[in-house]
Design brief:
Layout lengths: L2 H15 L4 H21 L4 E7 H5 L12 E11 L4 H13 L8 E3 L4 E4 L6 E10 L7 E6 L5 E6 L1 H11 L2 H4 L23 H18 L9 H14 L10 H11 L5 E2 L5 E2 L1 E2 L2 E5 L2 H5 L2 H24 L4 H12 L1 H20 L4 E3 L4 E3 L5 E2 L12
Parallel strand pairs: 2-5
Antiparallel strand pairs: 1-2, 3-4, 4-5, 5-6, 6-7, 8-9, 10-11, 12-13, 12-14
Helix pairs in contact: 1-7, 1-13, 7-8, 7-9, 8-9, 9-11, 11-12, 12-13
Length: 387
C-alpha cells in the first residue's frame, strides 16, 4: 500500500467526520420549511421565490468546531414583483419577518443579508439574501446590500448559475449515477444535502475546517470567505479533470488544489486582484483584497500553513511516526476531529485486513495491497481494531 493510498484513506476519514449530524440537518430543514411556508402565505401580493445557496446547496457545509458552535444556512429570497429599490426591499422583507412572533426577536441586519439567529441549541443561523431579478439576464439576480453609511444598493450575482457551474465541475451526473437533483417547480425550493460526495466537496470541507482552526488562533478580520476557497478548489479540480477520480481520493485533490491556487488568482489591467465568479464574470470575489493588501498576505500565509499541515507533515509522518502525525493533525484540525478521524482510519485498515487485502513488502518495509507480497502480520493502528 503506497503512501498516497494511506493519505487518501486518512483524509477521507476526516471529511466524513466534518459532516453535520442528521439531527442538525433535520433542524435546518424544519426551520427552512417553516420560513418558506410563512413567506408563501404572508404576502399573496408578491411573486416570490426562495431557494438555498452556499454550502448547503453545494454539499460543502462543515460541522462547527465547538459543540455549541454554529453554522450558517444561506438562502435567497427573490422578489420578482413588485419591483422595489434596494432599501425598500430590505425593509419590506425585514418587516414581514418581524410581523411573525417566531422571528421577531431573532433578526439581525447584516451588510450582505438579513440574519435569523435561532436558539443556541439549534446550532445554526439563516442568512437571507434579499434580491430582485436582473432584467433580461435570468437567472442572474441583484442582491440588496448596504455599506457602513447605511446606503443600500443592488449588487449583481448569479447563485443558481454558480451551483450549476459547481455541479458541472464535479461531474455531477457521473458522481450521482444520473440521479440529478432537480428543484420542484414551486416557489420554495427544497433544502437538502447530497448523500454521496465527490473529492471536490470533501476537499473544500477539509480546507474550510483548516481555515477555521487557523484563524481561531488569529484575528479573523482577514479570514478568506468560503466562496474564494470553493471557487479556487473548483477551478483547480476542473483544470486537472480530477472528477474522474475515485470518491475517496480526497488527499490527491487537496494536494493539486493547494499547489494550483496561484494560477487562478490574477490581476486585471489596473493591477487589481481579480477572481471572477464563474457564473457571472463581472463579479469579483477579491474586491476586499484591493481595498487592503493584507487580505492577500494573510491568504498566502494560510495556504503555506495548509500545505505544511496537509501535504508535508502527513506525508512524512504517516509511515512510521503515528504519534507525531496525531500531534500535527490535532494542531491543524482540532483534537476532537483528529482523534475520531484517526480512529475511523484505523477501523478502515482493520477492514482491509479482514478482507485479506493487506500484504507486506520487505524490500520497501511497507504495507501494500499487491497480491505478490508477503502476508501482513496483525497489529493495531491508530486505535483501530486488531488487524
Amino acid at each position: 500500500m503506497d503512501r498516497e493510498y494511506k493519505l487518501n484513506m486518512l483524509f477521507n476519514a476526516f471529511a466524513e467526520e466534518l459532516n453535520i449530524t442528521d439531527t442538525m440537518l433535520e433542524k435546518a430543514e424544519t426551520a427552512y420549511g417553516a420560513l418558506g411556508d410563512y413567506l408563501r402565505e404572508a404576502n399573496s401580493e408578491w411573486d416570490l421565490v426562495m431557494y438555498p445557496q452556499g454550502s448547503f446547496a453545494l454539499g460543502t457545509v462543515v460541522k462547527p468546531i465547538q459543540e455549541e458552535g454554529q453554522y450558517d444556512v444561506d438562502l435567497v429570497v427573490l422578489v420578482k414583483s413588485p419591483s422595489m429599490t434596494a432599501s425598500n426591499l430590505r425593509v419590506a422583507i425585514r418587516k414581514l419577518l418581524e410581523n411573525h412572533g417566531r422571528y421577531e426577536k431573532k433578526i439581525e441586519d447584516k451588510k450582505p443579508c438579513i440574519r435569523i439567529q435561532y436558539a443556541d441549541y439549534s446550532q445554526f443561523h439563516m442568512d437571507i439574501a434579499c434580491a430582485k431579478p436582473e432584467l433580461g439576464k435570468a437567472p442572474c439576480i441583484e442582491i440588496a446590500r448596504y455599506n457602513d453609511d447605511s446606503m443600500y444598493y443592488y449588487d449583481p450575482s448569479n447563485p443558481e448559475g454558480y451551483i450549476e457551474w459547481f455541479k458541472r465541475v464535479m461531474n455531477y451526473e457521473r458522481a450521482y449515477e444520473q440521479q440529478k437533483r432537480l428543484y420542484a417547480s414551486t416557489d420554495v425550493k427544497t433544502l437538502r444535502l447530497p448523500t454521496i460526495r465527490t473529492p471536490l466537496q470533501k476537499a473544500i470541507q477539509i480546507l474550510k475546517r483548516h481555515r477555521d482552526i487557523y484563524y481561531s488562533e488569529r484575528s479573523d478580520e482577514f479570514k478568506p470567505d468560503s466562496v474564494i476557497i470553493t471557487t479556487l478548489c473548483g477551478l483547480t479540480y476542473d483544470s486537472t479533470q480530477q472528477y474522474a477520480m475515485d470518491s475517496s481520493d480526497v488527499y490527491s485533490a487537496i494536494v493539486n488544489m493547494l499547489r494550483g491556487f496561484a494560477r487562478f488568482i490574477g490581476r486585471n489591467a489596473n493591477g487589481e486582484y481579480f477572481l471572477s465568479n464563474p457564473s457571472y464574470t463581472q463579479e469579483n470575489f477579491l474586491k476586499k483584497w484591493n481595498e487592503d493588501e493584507r487580505y492577500a498576505e494573510h491568504f498566502l500565509r494560510w495556504v503555506e500553513c495548509a500545505q505544511r499541515d496537509i501535504i508535508d507533515d502527513p506525508s512524512y509522518f504517516i509511515e512510521d511516526s503515528p504519534a507525531r502525525l496525531n500531534s500535527s493533525l490535532e494542531k491543524a484540525f482540532g483534537k476532537g476531529l483528529s482523534d475520531v478521524s484517526l480512529h475511523r482510519y484505523g477501523l478502515a485498515f482493520g477492514q482491509l485486513a479482514k478482507e485479506e487485502r493487506l500484504k507486506y513488502d520487505p524490500r520497501q518495509q511497507a504495507v501494500t495491497t499487491k497480491p505478490s507480497d508477503q502476508d501482513y502480520r496483525p497489529h493495531t493502528y491508530f486505535g483501530g481494531e486488531e488487524i
